[in-house]
Amino acid sequence: MRDAWVAFSGPLVLAVGAADGWRELAGPQTAVTDAGGHWLTPGFVDIHCHGAGGAAFDDGAEGIRTGLAVHRAHGTTRSVISLVTNTRANLLESLSVIAGLAATDPLVLGSHLEGPFLDLEFKGAHNESLLRQADAGELDAMLDAAAGTLRQITLAPELPGATAAIGRFVDAGVAVAVGHTAADYEQSRAAFDAGASILTHAFNGMRGIHHRAPGPVAAATHTPGVTLEVINDGTHVHPEVVRMAFASAPGRIALITDAMAATGSADGEYMLGALAVTVQGGVARLVEGGSIAGSTLTLDDAVRRAVNEVGVDMATAIDAVTAVPARTIGRAADLGALAVGFAADAVIMRDDFSVAAVWANGTPLPA
């Protein structure tokens, strides 16, 4: 909509409209920002992110705050805090820390466990010595530690105990993602039929599409309601394959960062959990083995690439960082749109897709 406006009242959107209608709402103390003809979008929602600014989200509350500050400056107003595979004790401690942050910071949506119930062959940048099968005791401990803030868990559905785990997590209101998996098409379909609703960073950490063995990606595009995460950084997935994903699953692509500590920082040596990572030219790889180890992406750049390199329209690209991820974690009623009663989260983007201004929960953030 051209010449549009949005009015905030505290943490919520009060009204939306076009032309001069906002003047009727403005009082002498009302703060007014002119977007200057730039794009005004809902705040971005990242459901898969591990860090930034030299800090990893596994490093505790201060590391999380440091990393989120970087992403918020790039338009991400709400974040799910992703954790890599770790010991049981460390994961439970991290889940508890995130629960505490979520209780005091509405911009922290909760946690995402990317592991430890992952396939060894497709472990990617996860410590293989800590991978394990799901057992009921650990599932209950995770849910207890998260205290209602576990939003997503990635697991390999072909592993023993995984089917029961899917049911347990879904019953607890957790979105289950298929990922880091050797599952074939049929096993993936079975997982989605059992309640899994996300494909973790599609095409990465799984078998690709073969004309006689379509694999998890085809299972996800086939199944209504399944969201496909995509890391649109030009490294993890070729732009033409990203275009095919958008075409195959319209309205179900969530652009994510999967960002690690080097995001917003210089190339160099970093840690992802207990694994050493080297970043060169903005591409993160494990020192041992050379596997891609997350990204250094921010969501504003993911949008830019979606429009300029993949070729999707602006509205579709913005939906992929707002409405789709919000719906994926059960927040479609209050996040991901500039609509009355929704969270007062907004981003002004220039024509070059850089971020000019950010509001979250009705408050301006540094950009």
Automatic annotation (TrEMBL):
Belongs to the metallo-dependent hydrolases superfamily. NagA family. The active site is at 258 (proton donor/acceptor). PANTHER family: N-ACETYLGLUCOSAMINE-6-PHOSPHATE DEACETYLASE. Residues 40-363 form the Amidohydrolase-related domain. The lineage of its organism: Bacteria, Bacillati, Actinomycetota, Actinomycetes, Micrococcales. GO terms for biological process: N-acetylglucosamine catabolic process. Keywords: Carbohydrate metabolism, Hydrolase, Metal-binding. Zn(2+) binds at residues 114, 180, 201. The keyword Hydrolase applies. This is N-acetylglucosamine 6-phosphate deacetylase.
